[in-house]
């Protein structure tokens, strides 16, 4: 049912069809009728601050290797969103964080991703984890704006700036006028 | 690689192992090495109100058939969380809703679910969709508290009540003391 590709991944022969009892087209394996229910994936992310400084990580892996990002990654099974955000900060920057509250929920339908982004405080030292080339606490004016890895990093940083003096605020969603980046 | 079961579903023979280049145990098909990356799934839900009344739907399907729930369901590919919440209200109650803001983000790690729940306003008539036995707008005191389908329905309703007079509030998460229900 699958062929191993030169990159080590496997290929399955899926056909698009509507499984019995379902109401929409799914990817179904033509050999064994396995239904590949592709659900949107959750990214847990954090804008982590220490005083007026903001934690960024320079990516050691593709995509966007060498560019700066917020601590973020795919949520795994068996954890809460908050636990996922803390785990990612630990994996990418050896950072212990104290989560304050939800900053934003962004949807990227083109790649079926939902990013749940927290506002958090750094409560440890930092050092690069295996997925980071370097990690750094930036003053706002020194943020490498032209070398950010993803649009959601820019959105998170600018939305964070709007909440700096606030303890209560509604979470942000995708900024208006950014549909071309997400559809 | 799969056997069809009497209920029409297919069974795959998965073994638990760490795929090359990964760092944790995954379910891998013992025949074809297909890796089943099970990611947490997103439920988009809404507390939908009309004046002081709250929309509930009595489930026509398992699990918890016959019990009352909020309009909610699995987010699909290619949509935003807000679009998923509007689609579910349409599917379950033929309801058009106007989303106000995020009410809560609940994590249910035992079943790897994240519920993103909105506060929303009803802007149409309602009638039962195929997954609902009946749909009704309840006064607060008439809500069938002992016949709610899921703990998250109770959480969403009580958290909603705390926000009634508020336009700005931080989203809620799992109530304290409910770990036994979610782990
Ligand atoms: Zn197959
Ligand atoms: Zn297989």
From TrEMBL, chains A, B:
<dbReference type="InterPro" id="IPR020084">
    <property type="entry name" value="NUDIX_hydrolase_CS"/>
</dbReference>
<dbReference type="InterPro" id="IPR015797">
    <property type="entry name" value="NUDIX_hydrolase-like_dom_sf"/>
</dbReference>
<comment type="similarity">
    <text>Belongs to the Nudix hydrolase family.</text>
</comment>
<dbReference type="InterPro" id="IPR020476">
    <property type="entry name" value="Nudix_hydrolase"/>
</dbReference>
<dbReference type="GO" id="GO:0016787">
    <property type="term" value="F:hydrolase activity"/>
</dbReference>
<feature type="domain" description="Nudix hydrolase">
    <location>
        <begin position="24"/>
        <end position="170"/>
    </location>
</feature>
<keyword id="KW-0460">Magnesium</keyword>
<dbReference type="Pfam" id="PF00293">
    <property type="entry name" value="NUDIX"/>
</dbReference>
<keyword id="KW-0378">Hydrolase</keyword>
<dbReference type="InterPro" id="IPR000086">
    <property type="entry name" value="NUDIX_hydrolase_dom"/>
</dbReference>
<protein>
    <recommendedName>
        <fullName>Nudix hydrolase domain-containing protein</fullName>
    </recommendedName>
</protein>
<dbReference type="InterPro" id="IPR029401">
    <property type="entry name" value="Nudix_N"/>
</dbReference>
<dbReference type="Pfam" id="PF14803">
    <property type="entry name" value="Zn_ribbon_Nudix"/>
</dbReference>
């Amino acid at each position: 049912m699958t062929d191993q590709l030169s990159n080590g991944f496997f290929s399955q022969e899926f056909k698009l069809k509507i499984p019995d009892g379902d109401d929409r087209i799914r990817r179904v394996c033509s050999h064994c009728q396995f239904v590949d229910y592709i659900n949107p994936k959750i990214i847990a992310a954090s804008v982590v601050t220490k005083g007026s400084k903001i934690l960024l990580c320079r990516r050691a892996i593709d995509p966007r290797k060498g560019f700066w990002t917020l601590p973020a990654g795919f949520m795994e099974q068996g954890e809460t969103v908050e636990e996922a955000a803390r785990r990612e900060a630990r994996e990418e920057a050896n950072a212990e964080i104290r989560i304050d509250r939800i900053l934003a929920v962004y949807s990227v339908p083109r790649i079926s991703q939902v990013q749940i982004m927290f506002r958090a405080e750094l409560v440890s030292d930092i050092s690069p984890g295996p997925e980071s080339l370097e990690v750094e606490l930036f003053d706002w004016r020194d943020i490498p704006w032209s070398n950010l890895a993803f649009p959601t990093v820019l959105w998170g940083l600018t939305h964070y700036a709007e909440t700096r003096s606030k303890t209560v605020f509604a979470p942000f969603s995708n900024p208006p006028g950014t549909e071309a980046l997400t559809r």
